[in-house]
Amino acid sequence: MRKAIRAASWLILSTLVVCGGYLCQPAAALVIASGDGSGNTSAPADDPGWSYMGVRGGASAIYMGNDWVATTAHVGVGDGSVVFDGNTYQRDPDVCVIRLKNSNQTKTDIIMFKLESGPSLPPPEIPTTIMFPGSEVTMIGYGRNREPNMTTWDIDTGTNPDSWIEHPPDDPNLINRSGYKTGGSFATRWGENTVESVGLNIISVGPGGSYGKVRALSTKFDANGLTHEAQAVPGDSGGGVFYKDGNSWQLVGMIFAIDTFDGQSLNYAVFDNLTYAADLLFYRDQLLNPDMRLLGDMDESETLNTDDINPFVLALADPNAYAQQYPDVDANWVGDVDEDGTFNSDDINPFVELLIASSVAAEGGAVVPEPGTLLLLGIGVVLLLFRRRRKT
């Protein structure tokens, strides 16, 4: 039975994921069941996308082409550096970090950031059709290596949490669970698994609150699974999940969490553990078009209308207050309506013109701003700017 367990404190604070009522640990690199576990540290002969996988501050990241990188929000951007194929690339500080959204406009645990100059790779292929349970996938991630020998445990369910008592494998009467311990060394590694479930809605929760809901698929660490049966382990996230559709490899998922058993150590990869990956089909357009933005959408509603006037005024007059009220919106990005690279008072007239044009185009879906409303916009900007100057 899986129960709520304590948060991981290693590497990325205490991020948890609520999975169907259970708390799940953030994911890391892959443990594989084959051999002594030290293999698969270079691309397989049939390479699904090894060069697209990078290392970001001890976590994983995926190159999405056109200088853009994707990882999880709970991993974050850090110092902005990411390593692909041994080469270090730097984030472009002039381009804001993008937080991907669900179809209902709620935030996810997926972010993208742009590099000053990225690897010479085209965007990966992202599927246009849904995955099905039983599909074989290849997983790639960076993190801790496992110990060479399997470990077996007797589980005492009379304690809270359950106690895991290590026993030799030659005593079958005491064995409830088996798997592998992980050590302190790190590597990028690939492994295999089959899709267990699809259509999951996973809520990622951390010490600062929710990181958002993620549409996900899962795999299970099966003792009788594929040759290089793989399981993610706690610590970092952002690894890739690839599926071969005919002759073409597709990036179908991003690893972000695992499901563990009550009392299970964060250093164990145990058979029947689950790995969760964001189902990238549902985020395809955002991943392939991160430069898209709705100019003037200051309230992050995905609609340009009169509701954006007050946030626009606030962003001009008091950027800090705007940032507190709209933490996921980069005012310098969506507010730069004249697209001259700077958000300032020169954007007022273009914003008004854009607002009118958007209202007319809505064909009744939005009210065309009255002249009095636009006058109030100008007066509001002037008054707030005056108040701001008096405070300084």
**Helix proportion of residues, in percent?**
10-25%
Average per-residue pLDDT, rounded, comes to 82
What is the radius of gyration?
A: 24 Å
Q: Specify the biggest β-sheet.
A: 12 strands, antiparallel
The first-level CATH class name of the largest domain: Mainly Beta
Q: Kindly report the CATH topology of the largest domain.
A: Thrombin, subunit H
Strand content is 35-45%
Shape: elongated
Secondary structure tally: strands: 19
Helix segment tally: 6
The total domain count is 2
C-alpha termini separation: 60 Å
Uncertain runs are: 1-17, 363-372
| Content-based structural category | alpha+beta
**What CATH architecture of the largest domain would you give?**
Beta Barrel
Query: Order of SSEs, N→C?
Result: EEEEEEEEEEEEEEEEEEEHHHHHH
What's the short version?
This protein is an alpha+beta fold and 392 residues long. It has helices spanning 284-288, 309-317, 319-325, 331-334, 348-361, 371-391; strands at 16-19, 22-32, 53-56, 59-65, 68-72, 81-84, 87-90, 98-101, 107-114, 136-146, 151-156, 163-167, 177-206, 209-220, 230-234, 240-245, 248-259, 268-270, 274-279.
